[in-house]
Structure formats: structure tokens, C-alpha cells
Amino acid sequence: MIRRNGEHPVEKRENMRGGNGTVEITALEKELLPAQCRLFSKIVLRPGCSIGVHEHTGEAEMFYFASGEGTVTDDGVKIAVKAGDSMTTPSGHTHGVENTGSEDLVIIAAIARD
Amino acid sequence: MIRRNGEHPVEKRENMRGGNGTVEITALEKELLPAQCRLFSKIVLRPGCSIGVHEHTGEAEMFYFASGEGTVTDDGVKIAVKAGDSMTTPSGHTHGVENTGSEDLVIIAAIARD
Prior knowledge:
The structure is a homodimer. The first copy, chain A, is mostly beta strands. Chain A has strands spanning 2-3, 10-14, 22-27, 37-45, 50-56, 59-67, 69-74, 77-82, 86-89, 93-98, 105-113. Chain A is globular, with a radius of gyration of 14 Å.
């Protein structure tokens, strides 16, 4: 099944997980996802925007930073990240992410059962 | 867990699934993946290179085309794709992909149980 650029559902979330500003999530519809996967999406954070720190339970999330730069909070530790880096957050761990750069921070994210 | 650009294992596969040329796969190590996920990777196909048609069983694969353009074979049907498009291949279905453009075709791929 092909979904063209522009055909994917786009959700704009304000203050996501207690973060700042708006997060734009371009996602595959649930019925297109593998049974053990609940998210495969492009996440765009404009400068200054963030997703607040939160925990994943029974699932793990993987981030691939496609462009831009930012600061993640990885189990309470702040770390600078940029394009080409990846981040994994297993079940029982916490993370958050903030765009601390001057361009959009673009993340490809997937969540699967863990 | 952060993996920096350049720290991920990179595998170069020749004639992958019967395809042409070399496919470069930059992947997360297995121990970093969710239990129900067996791949989260960046796949780079240089012009003319391809991954041959193959079936997924008991798992589904998701592609996000990050840059470039190419032609996929989706259950036997050839379809042109380009940056921003996505492709999903559920369990029991087949797919292949070829870089038919003049620049690298870059794909972010994930495979989870289905």
C-alpha cells in the first residue's frame, strides 16, 4: 500500500506531553501498521517546540533524527542530538525532546510492543 | 540510549533479495529494538540499485521514503515513489524497490510482528 506525500493524516498537537508549542505528526493510519506496532510517523518540531518527558510502558520507541538539532532528555539526562543520530526508549524508561536549534527538527519515529 | 551518526552498524549487502548492486543498511543493533520489532534502519540505494521482490510472513514492513525517487513493486504492481511517500507491506504480501532516479534513494524502514 502506497501513501503519497500529502495523503497521510496530519495531527497538530499543542503542548504534547506537557511540552511547548505545536508538534506536527504525520502518521500511518492504524490499519496500515503491523499488529505489534502502534506508531510509524514523521514528527516535526519547530524551533522552541518540545514533547515533554514521558514514560513508555509495554512498548519501546525509536527515533531517527532526519534533520535539524535538539536536546533530548534520556532517563533524566539532557543530551544534544542532531541529524543522523538515533534514540531508543525501552519499556519502563522515559524521554522527551526539544528543538533547541534554528531549523525544524524532523524525527522518524516508530513504537512497537516491548 | 543515543547512537550518534556514524556509530550505528553499517552493512553493505550485494544483490539483496536478488536485486542489483549494493544496498547500504544503517541499523539499530538488535538489543536496542523493541521485543516485537526486528529492524529499524536507514536503507540507501544508489542509482540503479535495488532490493528484489520478496515476501514478509508473520511480520510487516513500513517504508518512509526520505529522499530520492524510485520504483516499488507492490504485490506485483510497479509504482513510482518519491520523497515523502510511504509504503506498507503486511504479512503475506510482497514488495521490492529499485532506485530509478539519479540521486540516492534513502528509506527509513521498520519491521514489526504482524
